[in-house]
């Protein structure tokens, strides 16, 4: 556990030398992404943020962008429109960013939702929550790695469920297409584990880039309703009567969540580069302190999940990455 007081003290040291100068937030129009943008902008540093969101989010995002400009006139937020559940649109978004920037310092990924309802596919044939939570994230990373490599202290932060991987991954039906396979618990476990497997591969291949898979804990952002197809269904009543009240009762405040994710995005506690950190350094999945993939819990401490990951490296790593590469191939 990293004390919240120490996190705030570290964040207070963020300046123009240690802050990301160019950041890309995918999923920053609401929830943890938006909270983290606000915490970053509030530091007063000069930076540029590409805020990626769907067309329907623009009106809400426009007000937020103006609010951030009023908070810090040196923070320039660029609205970047696209439906990121579609890999073809992710490809276009990345092409636009690459045409404008020479480097990227931070890629922050929060897209996705818990699928309480039935399986639903995009026009590209991918289940929507899996496309958002896994495939589009991996495509953003692969597309933007050349710009991340040109940064002095590049970082990729994916917010989902780092440290909660399971060894019982379905390798025969990776996309859970067979009847009876798709469901909330199984899908979330599958996507979480796939994120960690692939991020570790990418971290190993790109040692200059620090990767973080974050488990944020409960934060009352209201996004829990995103995966509910019918508010009057059993699951809709379950979320309303039980889950949402529990989240409100036990969750972090938005301010604390923002500070914790700002810490993960900037502190030298993870990988040795960034805002100075004198506390205990984080340790990655390979039990090292520099580079690699860090599985960061909701209290900002690291886990290696050694028993599970050792099994996954042996039996699942190649199969998952081969499958992922095949899906992403037309868009890379």
Automatic annotation (TrEMBL):
Pfam families, alphabetized: adh_short
Key word Oxidoreductase present: yes
A single MF term (Gene Ontology): oxidoreductase activity
Keywords: Oxidoreductase
Signal peptide per UniProt: none
Amino-acid biosynthesis is among the record's keywords: no
Designated name of the protein: NAD(P)-binding protein
Species this chain originates from: Paraphoma chrysanthemicola
